[in-house]
Specification:
The chain is α/β, with parallel strands linked by helices and 223 residues long. Helices cover 34% and strands 19% of the residues. The longest helix has 16 residues, at 204-219.
């Protein structure tokens, strides 16, 4: 069964101390680091890009889960691969050729993730896209800004995917905290992205441990 993977979103960290913040999360039990790349076109915000990822790469051996909220996802594949990205997750809404893009990402040596916005039907990734992708990300907030309220109405998409693809990594991103983890875990998500609830926690190790316990317990129903 898919194991619990906790991926703190560095969008919520203290960027003046990015290396220390990344190291702190890994020491507290994080499996991945979730890196939000925004271009100001696909979403109305600008964050980091390949140069920052490249600078952070020598500082940690953590798996870099790169969430590409960009208007031309095929344009940045090589740059992110060279910078040290491990997972390249593009938005299905940003491309007309998702299958070709998945192949491009794999050829560059990265895993391929496909993200789905709250207003997009999960049907667009069922079939060939989900079968070729290494992960599907169901957004539980609108992409572009941290600190938004969790949209529980997105969880039926997770459930649909888990029922059809029991071995697939399914990620949820947006508003994940101790009061929303049960919903995502029971829905079938195994990759949990959390920002404020981890970087702002007095004891992030405890929160990460609870997330993992709840996800792993919920995954048993799909065996």
């Amino acid at each position: 069964m898919p194991k619990a993977i906790i991926a703190p979103s560095v969008l919520a960290c203290d960027f003046a101390n990015l290396q220390a913040e990344a190291t702190r999360m890994v020491k507290n039990g994080a499996d991945w680091l979730h890196l939000d790349v925004m271009d100001g076109h696909f979403v109305p915000n600008i964050t980091m890009g390949a140069p920052i990822i490249k600078c952070l790469r020598p500082c940690t051996e953590a798996f870099f889960d790169c969430h590409m909220m960009v208007a031309e996802p095929s344009r940045w594949v090589e740059d992110i691969a060279k910078a040290g990205g491990n997972m390249y997750t593009f938005h299905i809404e940003a491309t007309k050729e998702p299958v070709a893009l998945i192949h491009q990402i794999h050829k560059a040596g990265m895993k391929a993730g496909v993200a789905v916005k709250p207003g997009t039907s999960v049907d667009v990734v069922l079939g060939e896209v989900a079968e070729l992708a290494d992960m599907i990300l169901i957004m539980t907030v609108e992409p572009g800004f941290g600190g938004q309220k969790y949209k529980e109405e997105c969880i039926p998409k997770v459930l649909t995917l888990r029922q059809k693809y029991p071995h697939l990594d399914i990620e949820v991103d947006g508003g994940l905290a101790l009061d929303t983890i049960d919903s995502s875990a029971q829905g079938g998500a195994n990759v949990i992205v959390a920002g404020t609830s981890l970087f702002g926690a007095p004891n992030p190790h405890e929160v990460i441990s609870i997330f993992k316990e709840k996800v792993n317990e919920a995954q048993k129903q799909w065996i």
